[in-house]
Design a protein that fits this description.
Layout: H1 7-19, E1 28-29, E2 35-38, E3 41-45, H2 58-71, H3 86-99, E4 103-107, H4 110-121, E5 127-131, H5 136-145, E6 148-152, H6 157-165, E7 173-178, H7 190-200, E8 203-207, H8 222-225, E9 234-238, E10 248-252, H9 254-263, H10 265-269, H11 275-290, H12 293-312, E11 323-329, H13 331-343, E12 346-347, E13 350-351, E14 361-366, H14 373-390
Parallel strand pairs: 3-12, 5-6, 5-7, 7-8, 8-9
Antiparallel strand pairs: 1-2, 2-3, 4-10, 9-10, 11-14, 13-14
Helix pairs in contact: 2-11, 3-11, 4-5, 6-7, 12-14, 13-14
């Protein structure tokens, strides 16, 4: 009998089950909405990145349907062969104007945008200075580049300065941070980091995935929020969260984007977006520019929900955004909190090591513009019941 060479994976899974950390995928039945049906249960959905509710916005839906009629369901090729359609170029032009940069390259995901960019522009002779809590896609891109990686403690600008002072002035350096950190919900110290980048001659890069559609004028991101235009060389954004569709993009100078067209491996070796997705993204930009009140609703809901959690005594960490972690401590406790909330009608996903530190396990909540105050109050009431039960408050 053949011995299963993957049997060690079963052992690893059994270990997760014994620790209470094994998770099954929650299955969504129907639309991604403020209240949705997961695993045959209708719950207030606090686990979606659908910040503005654009996944179901009528303008995006109609744009996608019309694009399918006009162009079909797929592009049929990678961008560098036969897969660049006029609609792809239109989206890149619109995004560049929106982000106030010369050019944009659209990637199949935000992960591909980060990983493909960092690995394309750096070599083993270069060095990366990276915040300790930067997104996994940044970390993977750094590793793929084979550049030296220097990590500074979260938002510790002084520590980043110490690292830079010890590096040769002639060495190519990339200083990189998230605009909004996806697990903490806090903002990167962009003004101070831009000062450092200019002082030490670094390429300055910001991953603005969770700021896209959320911060800045009409959702232009943290570069706009902090008025750092012209001081950030590389901006990464997403089309998969507040924009409501799928993909990522990189914004910068014309030559930088042209270089990515030639060297970024995800761009070179992945089929381009279906035209329906591109059309949805174009419609989303129209909504951001023409319906700014949707972002105002997001922030009103964010303030209401945060105030409720904090008044009950929950530890919400450093959050400055619609991402509000509820710190539970160890992983088992966080998963218990998540499971009990789901039983009470609230979907807030548990997050544990290695995504966060072992003693900082949490449920991560994200409110959206489309939550009603009644839905958010229902969720707060559930948090209070379960928080008291588990001794968190």
């Amino acid at each position: 009998m053949r011995v299963d060479p993957l049997a060690f994976l079963t052992t690893e899974l059994d270990s997760l089950r014994e620790q209470g950390l094994h998770r099954s995928l929650r299955i969504l039945e129907g639309r991604q909405q403020a209240s949705s049906r997961f695993d045959a249960r209708t719950v207030v959905n606090l686990s979606s990145n659908n910040y503005l509710g654009l996944t179901t916005h009528p303008r995006l839906i109609e744009a996608a349907i019309q694009a399918i009629r006009d162009y079909g369901v797929g592009s049929g090729s990678v961008r560098t062969i036969a897969g660049t359609m006029e609609i792809h170029m239109e989206l890149e032009r619109r995004l560049a104007a929106f982000k106030n940069t010369e050019a944009v390259a659209v990637f199949q995901s935000g992960f591909a945008a980060n990983a493909g960019t960092v690995s394309a522009i750096l070599t083993k002779e270069d060095v990366i200075i990276s915040d300790a809590l930067n997104h996994a896609s940044i970390i993977d891109g750094c590793r793929l580049s084979r550049a030296a990686i220097k990590v500074f403690p979260h938002k510790d600008v002084a520590a980043a300065r110490t690292i830079l002072k010890e590096l040769p002035g002639s060495q190519r350096k990339l200083l990189i941070t998230d605009g909004v950190f996806s697990m903490e919900g806090d903002l990167g110290p962009l003004p101070e980091l831009c000062d450092l980048a200019e002082e030490f001659g670094c390429i300055m890069m910001v991953d603005d995935a969770h700021a896209s559609g959320v911060f800045g004028r009409n959702g232009r991101g943290t570069i706009d929020h902090f008025n750092m235009h012209g001081r950030v060389d590389i901006q990464v954004g997403t089309l998969s969260k507040a924009i409501g569709a799928l993909g990522g993009y990189v914004a910068g100078s014309k030559d930088f984007i042209d270089f990515l067209y030639h060297r970024a491996r995800p761009f070179l070796f992945s089929t381009s977006h279906p035209p329906s997705v591109v059309a949805s993204c174009l419609a989303a930009l129209d909504v951001l520019e023409q319906e700014p009140e949707i972002i105002e609703r997001l922030w009103a809901n964010t303030r209401f929900f945060k105030a409720g959690l904090e008044s009950m005594g929950f530890d919400t960490g450093l959050s400055e955004s619609p991402i509000t972690p509820v710190i539970a401590g160890d992983g088992v406790r966080a998963m218990k909190l998540s499971d009990r909330l789901f039983q009470e009608g609230v979907f807030a996903q548990g997050i544990a090591f290695p995504t966060v530190a072992r003693d900082k396990a949490r449920v991560r909540t994200i409110v959206t513009a489309t939550h009603s105050q009644n839905e958010l109050q229902f969720a707060l009431d559930a948090f209070k019941r379960v928080g008291l039960e588990l001794g968190l408050i």
